[in-house]
Specification:
By secondary structure, this protein is of the alpha+beta class. It has helices spanning 3-12, 14-27, 29-44, 78-84, 105-133, 139-147, 153-158, 168-174, 181-186, and strands at residues 49-54, 65-71, 86-95, 98-104. Strand 3 and strand 4 form a beta hairpin. The longest helix has 29 residues, at 105-133. The protein is elongated, with a radius of gyration of 20 Å.
């Protein structure tokens, strides 16, 4: 395969690729919305515990702790749920005096949306290269081509996929932040 030729084509046409990725996202908006809502539904069934953060009394660590306070309310918006509700999981900060960060459902969704966006972006890039050169590429081929053009970073930075790094971008893109959790659960 002519990997260098394909990588050079990608590197020299970043703007065109970014524009096509954006068009792909717009065409797939309903599908993206459905996938995000399905991911959120997984977190809501069964209804999860509601946690409240308390600073605690340790002078040496401001992490505090989470305490269970019943179940989350389904009478809140998706935005509030993702921003304010804790999953109960924690991550080390490796920061002196602040040992843990507590994960929100938004943190979890961000992992999902980043992966979703990168897959859509790669599929669009793959489709353009295959069409231009009349070839069929494997995922390994795409990895090799990506190595020759900074792993598609310039395209990622120039297109909507970069807005999917944190959950707020895709929620805004899909227009679902104001939905009530009760409506999300009831609509399949």
């Amino acid at each position: 395969m002519e990997y260098e030729q394909y990588a050079e084509y990608v590197a020299n046409n970043t703007g065109m690729f970014a524009e096509e990725v954006n068009k792909s996202f717009e065409r797939s908006k309903d599908l993206i919305k459905g996938r995000i809502l399905n991911e959120i539904r997984k977190n809501l069934t069964p209804i999860p515990e509601h946690f409240e953060w308390s600073r605690g009394e340790c002078r040496y660590d401001s992490s505090g702790y989470l305490k269970e306070k019943g179940l989350i309310s389904l009478n809140q918006t998706l935005y509030d749920f993702l921003n304010n509700e804790y999953t109960g999981a924690s991550m080390p900060t490796y920061e002196s005096g602040h040992g843990l960060n507590y994960c929100t459902y938004g943190d979890d969704l961000s992992i999902f949306t980043l992966d979703l966006a990168c897959n859509y972006m790669r599929q669009t890039i793959k489709s353009i290269i295959e069409s231009k050169f009349n070839i069929s590429l494997t995922e390994d081929d795409m990895l090799t081509i990506g190595e020759g053009c900074d792993d598609y970073d310039r395209i990622y930075d120039a297109c909507i996929a970069s807005e999917f790094f944190f959950w707020e971008g895709p929620v805004e893109f899909c227009g679902i932040g104001g939905m009530q959790l009760s409506d999300i659960i009831s609509k399949k």
